[in-house]
Design goal:
This protein has 653 residues and is mainly alpha-helical. It is built from 24 helices and 7 strands. β4 and β5 form a beta hairpin. α4 runs antiparallel to α5, α14 packs antiparallel against α17 and α19 packs antiparallel against α21. The longest helix has 42 residues.
């Protein structure tokens, strides 16, 4: 379906380059942000240019291994050849050589992405002029040359893209104002949700404020814009391919459908039905564990022994245990094992990457504000301080006397930095992964035995039985709403389990003081409170209401609100109690220095040690009770919908 000829932006696009979240239901929005748009850019290049990008191993060696190797060689040469007289020249030379290499790699990536943008613009131009070959040949080159500056700016590492306002030159009755002799189109605003409001806030700061231009970083917004156009330019069959491997769904999903139809619970057959992407992800995990095993057995790193390897395995085992019960034991046919691997990997890799970046940005803002408050609060003491130690003491006294101010920052840290950011990352970690299991049956395109494109068909059950259940001609009934909803829940729990597993590894091996006992204690404490999978399950209730029950009132804000409240309250209680404990210890040390410490104070400490545990367990129980009750009511609604549609007899070829 071609874009409207009177609803265009710069370069003939139908959406603005800054419309990243204009429609929160588009998966390309969050895919453009993950890994700076690398995955989505590769997919767009495959779809538009029909080219297979080099393997990730080759790209890793070229983009990272080569620069690091050159740097090491230069450092070795510097060690042997540099003298005290020319050491500065050597260091300057190394800096400029590495700078040139990095600029070359960035320009090379920019050139590759520009090729995709030109291909999309050519397709848009062809659609707009009606596909007349003579006109295209004569004017396409001049048209692209006219917009060459926009193409370059869209995919620059850091640039300003001219603001692309919608214009109308045909329908003067639907105009609102004149801009440069052209007429601005009045458009109906899409339904607003939480994500759109947050994006508008960011857009008002960084987009359009710099001389009427969008600020572009790594071309992420441009990649999202290109994908939105590709969704309109290509048919469904071409779009239904996996990321990275670009394997079509039709190559592996019929076997998954056959296992589901036969209710075959063989783990080996489910393993054989994995897509190439899932197989590679499992192989990467096995390779990483094998390398860690070799490091531990050969004692290559004194800090990583065989005991530490067991902690790593136990960390993954905790996540796999949750997935075993939630998926394999109870819902193995509601969501395929192939989809489970992809969702877990999304949570482990993509969600962790997004959460770390955005938490760092938001926490830096709050940290700067708190730092300013402390500086203003102790300004008089600083002017009288004679040493840095006195300044530190003044800051400690200010914190002790103004616990309420820091409690506000603890609240913001718990509900915004931790809860809001992490819950949004988990939601988008689920939403950015497209699998055949989560597609609407009307959108899923399979191929029949004669390799022709199949269509959605309506047949009777007797006809489906006559057709049989083997091969790619498999007839599968439209999935009932109850297992469809259960599949969504398992998928979101898998994302949360992957994210929690990655987070646990960071806490155990990075944030925890060295020592096997400390690592085990941290892992046990975090495993006892599976707050991430629980919040993901609560989120899934809202997603099912929106996507399965077709309740349009459930947008992103209502979906995430209960999970944010539970997650934020859980973190806030622990953080606030830690703040009070720190304040009490400071007071206790002061009292002890004045020899006023008595036995009652130590008794208070002992009694307070169990308080965080009691509150944490209570909040997890409350969240679990809420999920069980709400999901039970939802299951009844889905059963009623299934019972009302039993007479439709709709089947999908």
């Amino acid at each position: 379906m071609p874009p409207s000829p009177y609803n265009t932006h710069r370069g003939g696009w139908s959406t603005s380059i800054c419309d990243l979240f204009a429609n929160s239901r588009q998966r390309s929005n969050c895919c453009a942000l993950a890994c700076c748009g690398l995955l989505l850019s590769d997919r767009n290049a495959h779809l538009m240019l029909n080219e297979q990008r080099p393997s990730w191993w080759k790209r890793f060696c070229w983009n990272l291994g080569m620069p690091v190797g050159i740097l090491l060689c230069l450092n070795v040469l510097e060690t042997f050849l540099a003298t005290e007289d020319n050491i500065l020249k050597w260091e300057a030379s190394i800096f400029w050589i590495m700078f040139i290499i990095i600029v070359f790699l960035l320009y090379r990536a920019k050139f590759e992405r520009m090729q995709v943008r030109r291909a999309v613009m050519a397709k848009l131009y062809e659609m707009r002029i009606g596909g007349r070959a003579d006109v295209i040949t004569a004017s396409l080159d001049s048209y692209q040359q006219l917009h060459i500056h926009d193409v370059r700016m869209a995919h620059a590492t850091c640039s300003c893209f001219p603001k692309d306002v919608i214009y109308n030159t045909q329908h003067e009755t639907d105009v609102d104002a004149d801009v440069d002799g052209q007429h601005l189109v009045l458009q109906e605003a899409p339904p607003r949700d939480l994500c759109m409001c947050l994006w508008d806030t960011v857009k008002s700061i960084f987009c359009g404020a710099c001389c009427g231009s969008w600020i572009q970083l790594c071309g992420m917004c441009a990649i999202g814009q290109e994908d939105r156009e590709i969704q309109q330019l290509l048919d469904k069959k071409q779009l239904q391919v996996d990321y990275i491997t670009f394997q079509p769904y039709s190559e592996y999903y019929p076997e998954i459908m056959a296992l589901r139809a036969a209710q075959d619970g063989s783990l080996i057959r489910h393993w054989r039905a994995l897509s190439l992407l899932s197989y590679n992800l499992v192989k990467i995990l096995g390779t990483c564990l094998a390398i860690l095993t070799a490091v531990a057995l050969l004692e290559l790193d004194p800090k990583f022994q065989i005991q530490n390897l067991f902690v790593v395995v136990a960390t993954f085992g905790q996540a796999f245990l949750i997935l075993y019960f939630c998926h394999w034991q109870w819902h193995r046919f509601d969501l395929s094992t192939d989809a489970l691997v992809k969702y877990f990997s999304s949570g482990f890799i993509l969600c962790t990457f997004l959460a770390m970046i955005y938490e760092m940005i938001v926490s830096s803002v709050f940290g700067s504000i708190s730092y300013i408050i402390v500086v203003v609060g102790i300004s008089q003491d600083v002017s009288q301080a004679a040493s840095p130690a006195q300044v530190q003491q003044a800051a400690a006294d200010f914190a002790k006397e103004h616990v309420g101010i820091f409690a506000v920052f603890v609240f913001l840290n718990a509900f915004v930095v931790a809860a809001l950011v992490e819950e949004m990352c988990k939601y988008f970690g689920y939403w950015m992964v497209e699998t055949p299991d989560t597609l609407d049956p009307d959108d899923l395109v399979m191929e029949t035995a004669d390799a022709s494109q199949s269509v959605t068909a309506t047949v009777t059950p007797s006809e489906s039985e006559q057709a049989g259940q083997s091969g790619p001609e498999l007839l599968s009934p439209k999935p009932p709403r109850v297992p469809h909803g259960a599949g969504i829940t398992v998928a979101m729990i898998a994302v949360a389990a992957g994210f929690a597993c990655s987070e646990n590894l960071l806490y155990v091996f990075v944030y925890t003081p060295p020592g096997l006992s400390n690592e085990i204690a941290t892992l046990v404490a975090r495993s006892m409170f599976p707050i991430h999978p629980l919040c993901a399950a609560i989120q899934s209730i809202g997603v099912v209401r929106r996507d399965v029950e077709k309740n349009g009132n459930f947008q992103l804000g209502r979906i995430m609100f209960p999970a944010i409240i539970l997650h934020g309250a859980f973190d806030f209680v622990l953080m606030f109690l830690a703040l009070l404990e720190s304040s009490r210890k400071t007071n206790a040390e002061d009292d002890q220095s004045n020899e006023n410490m008595d036995d009652a104070t130590f008794e208070d400490f002992d009694q307070g040690d169990s308080l965080p545990m009691i509150i944490s367990v209570s909040m997890v129980i409350v969240g679990l009770f809420y999920y069980v009750c709400d999901s039970g009511r939802q299951r009844k609604r889905l059963q009623e919908l299934d019972e009302g549609l039993q007479g439709c007899n709709e089947y999908v070829v």
